[in-house]
Design goal:
The protein has a six-stranded mixed β-sheet with strand order 6-7-8-3-9-10, sandwiched between helices. By secondary structure, it is an alpha/beta fold. Helix content is about 35%, strand content about 25%. The protein has seven helices and ten strands. Helix 2 packs across helix 3 and helix 3 packs across helix 4. The model has no long low-confidence stretch (mean pLDDT about 90). The radius of gyration is 18 Å and the shape is globular. It has one domain: 3-Layer(aba) Sandwich (Rossmann fold). The N and C termini lie far apart (about 40 Å).
Length: about 220
């Protein structure tokens, strides 16, 4: 079992970001989280990444309680709204720095291929000059560097054009990792996922096969009007 959550909940003062979350995810499954802004998707992802401990419930990743995160984190890749890149370095230089920090040995050519795999050109300009879509691609290149068993993606298709969405979707499938995606681009994300969960006010309102996620999302939107 990659993820096992029982009665999981997270509270910020008097507000529950999510509650009563029961979840099991097997190796190789790809789960889509959908829901409106503020529904708890990002907070749940951060808990799964061991960055934000739940207030209640039990959560284990790779069979390890997340209260012992040091052995878990090296096996997780998390792409969030914060790219995690050094803004004054180029994408290639970022990979060089991170590979050193991870004590991983890569040849220059291998790092260059990772940059090309995510659809970026090799360039010397620092990341702070990149467009939003280019920064997203560069942050995903870090996944290729780390090769995590569990990948958590928060709006991975934001700022990408349709061609970019298609390219990265194919890349995610090729990685073969267990994946959890939170996305408002339901149709695109559902295409590469096997299961889906709809969150509403922090609660699971629907769960089922990913190919039914768009219908569930539209139904939820109409009922909220």
């Amino acid at each position: 079992m990659i993820i096992e959550a029982k009665s999981l909940a997270r509270r910020f003062q008097q507000r529950w970001a999510y509650a009563h979350i029961d979840l099991e995810l097997q190796q190789g499954e790809r789960l889509l989280l959908i829901g409106a802004n503020g529904s708890g998707k990002t907070t749940l992802l951060r808990s799964l990444a061991t960055l934000l401990p739940p207030s209640q419930g039990e959560l284990s990743i790779f069979g390890v309680d997340i209260r012992n995160p040091r052995t878990i984190r090296p096996r997780i890749g998390f792409v969030s709204h914060d790219s995690g890149l050094y803004s004054d370095l180029s994408a290639l230089e970022n990979l060089q720095v991170y590979s050193s920090l991870m004590a991983k040995t890569y040849k220059q050519k291998e790092l260059e291929e990772m940059i090309e795999q995510v659809g970026l050109e090799l360039r010397n300009e620092p990341v702070h000059t990149y467009s939003a879509g280019m920064k997203k691609r560069a942050s995903i290149a870090l996944l290729l560097l780390k090769k995590p068993e569990l990948i958590l993606l928060d709006e991975p298709f934001s700022a990408l054009d349709p061609k970019g969405v298609e390219e990265l979707s194919e890349l995610f499938l090729q990685l073969g990792s267990t994946i959890v995606i939170a996305s408002h681009q339901v149709e695109s994300a559902a295409h590469i996922c096997t299961r889906a969960i709809l969150l509403e006010n922090g609660l699971i309102r629907w769960k089922g096969e990913a190919n039914n996620a768009w219908k569930a999302w539209r139904t939820a939107q109409r009922s909220s009007l």
